[in-house]
Amino acid sequence: MHKEENMSNNLIERDVPKDIQDRLKAWQYYFKLWYFLYYFFGVVSIVSALIVAYMAFAILNPKILGILSLIAAISTALNYFLMPYKRAKGYVQAWRALSSASIEYKTDESVNIKLLHQALRDGEKYIANQYE
Asked: What SS3 string covers the chain?
């Protein structure tokens, strides 16, 4: 954005501190990772369970049946015990709070850096609450 545009829109463009930017990137990475794991384990569980069910009736190959059954069980267990959807939700909430505060800080000179610090604290609470 050019300075003329900023002045005509009465907007400013301040840099968000690097540690805040780094935290935003990390939280975004983690929420994407947890969502990916949630869907990956879910799809693997469903597909392998369906194949096992089909093979049990159609083709009796105990070795393949056993391997697919194990894959289905492990995927289901990982989805249950790791709770990736719940973890992703905490990181999304944290990222949204910090992203919103960062945008406000960047574009409104009346916004104090304390808003960013509060958004960091709130974000950490959102993440921590998903582990309870």
From this structure: CCHHHHHHCCCCCCCCCHHHHHHHHHHHHHHHHHHHHHHHHHHHHHHHHHHHHHHHHCCCCHHHHHHHHHHHHHHHHHHHHHCHHHHHHHHHHHHHHHHHHHHHHHHCCCCCCHHHHHHHHHHHHHHHHCCC
- Whether pLDDT at 22 is above 90: yes
What value does the mean pLDDT of the chain take? 87
Q: pTM to 2 decimals?
A: 0.76
Amino acid at 75: S
Task: End-to-end CA distance of the chain: give it in Å, rounded.
Answer: 44
Rg (CA), the chain: 23
CA pair distance 70, 52, nearest whole angstrom = 10
The token duo for 58 is: 């159609």
CA distance 98 to 123: 7
